[in-house]
Amino acid sequence: MTAVDPDTARRAAKAPRAILAGTDLGRAAWEFGAYACTFPVMSTAPVSPDCQPVLVLPGFTTSDRTTTPLRMTLKNLGYPTYGWGLGVNVGPSDRILRGMRRKLDAIERLHGQPVSIIGWSLGGIFARELARQTPEMVRQVITLGSPFRMQRHAQSNARFAYRLAKPLHARMLDFPLEADAPPLEMPSTALYSRLDGIAAWQVCRDDPSDLSENIEVLCSHLGFGHNLPAVWAVADRLSLPAGTLEPFVPPKMLRPFFPKVSG
């Protein structure tokens, strides 16, 4: 069978089917309940010796509330972890664009070392933009179901809500996203799921290289921040030495949740 070119797959991708979109919230609620029962497992996750600071950016129409389980977990592992403190993510408004940069500047100055940025959905698109604007301040970028390779609005089931928020935006998104953007200068990991009910999974993947990777996980779009396998993958990537990227190997008990991992 001939492999499909990534660019061809991205152009052909459509928004997730109605069955996935309609069940995403319910599946995310189930994942939250499961995480509440199993999160002590995270105490055994690998941890970086230098415990770099971490900035977490929420998805479209959500706020720091939704990233609380993820941030609390990372804090318990020893990472100085911060929400963005900008309220609801309404898209690229002037207040949000300026506020994210100020937050990153403040965290980098406070700790005196580059910051790892985790971006969920639209937050991941912002995270990659920040990393390109200030590469010296960013240690690595991790995206959670972020359609940063989106070719058109029709590839996301959030497009209708996004259009409603357009009057608040300081600039428009140029499609296809990252068409002419250079690769990130630091390690980057893109977590994606074929069970995503909001964004087409094909546009949530990067072109693999020595500094970029994709990790498929069984997860709902709204559950990335409290899905145990996804959070484990985040912690595992944060534990890597600065400037490096090694193959992801999940613990045996979680391997069934990572379809691309053999064994």
TrEMBL record:
It comes from the Bacteria. Pfam families: Abhydrolase_1. One of its GO terms (molecular function) is catalytic activity. InterPro entries: AB_hydrolase_1, AB_hydrolase_fold. Residues 57-166 form the AB hydrolase-1 domain. This is AB hydrolase-1 domain-containing protein. It comes from Gordonia neofelifaecis NRRL B-59395.
